[in-house]
Structure formats: C-alpha cells, structure tokens
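Students often ask what a 'structure token' actually looks like in practice. Rather than answer in the abstract, let us consider Peptidyl-prolyl cis-trans isomerase, a protein of 169 residues. Its sequence is given first.
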Amino acid sequence: MVVLETSEGRILLATDAENAPVTTRNFLAYIDSGFYDGLIFHRVISNFMIQTGGFGPDMEPRKPGEPIPNEADNGLSNRRGTIAMARTMSPHTASSQFFINVNDNGFLDHTAKTQDGWGYCVFGKVVEGMDVVDRIREKPTTGRAGHRDVPVEDVIIHRAYRTNEGADA
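Now compare that with the structural description of the same chain:
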C-alpha cells in the first residue's frame, strides 16, 4: 500500500506485485527513495487520466532511472481507478511516470506483443481517495514548457510513502 499526500488530499494505492512484479518493484523503489515527493500532476485530461512522476513545479524535469520491461500482458485492464505506467511510443520505456485512470480506458490494454499492441501496464488501483482523483481531474489546464494539459495551479505530491493501512482492501 502506498499513500500519496497531495495538495488536493490523500490517495491510497494498492500495488499488484503478483501480476506486475517488475513494475511494482520499480514503483516501490521510487517511493522508498522519495523520488515522487515534491512532484506535480503534470498531465490532466478530465475524461481520461491524471499523470505524475516526471516534473516538479514550473515543469522542472526529474531524472528517472532506467526503463523497465512492459508487463501489460498481465491480464489487468485500464479501468477507472487503476494505476498504470506511462511510457513513450516505444513499449518498453516506462520508468517513473504513472497515471491514474479516471474512466475505463480499455483501449490502453495489451492486445499483442507488437509495437501498437503492447498497451500500458496496470500495476495497482486506488483503494481510497477517488474523490481526490476526481478533484484533480477537474482542474483547469493549459500549455506550459512545451507540454499540454498541465494544471494551471500546481497539484503537488507533498509526500509519497508505504503503509500497511488498508492492506486487506
């Protein structure tokens, strides 16, 4: 279980090490190192998802570690409330950035081990705090530092850490 203490409230996440072991290990290493502390949700699309894990306030990039293999072929679907790894167009480029699906986004699911079919790896879900996610998704956005869909007002992760709370969820 992971807590994201954000400027909009608290989000509790459950990771799925059974179905996405490499991705979960990678995510928890970033959590344990404090990597996400002080980062912003830098991409917010109200009918799609909210994304974080790459930029601080004023769109200052934070350098991630090495990319990990894509585990999107794990059978998990990009449904509302799930967390998934962000990546470039290349399937095996996920590192630190992740997103929370605010709608069912099955079109992001794995369909084949091809460039276009790999999909985006789901590795957990929101257990508490979808009201916070929904507040973030409704934030007005703008273009900033060459990026689109950036909230006008920073939505900051003050602290991200592991907890045993809600482990039975």
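One point worth highlighting: The first strand starts at residue 2 and ends at 6. Ask yourself how you might have guessed this from the sequence alone, and why that guess would often be unreliable.
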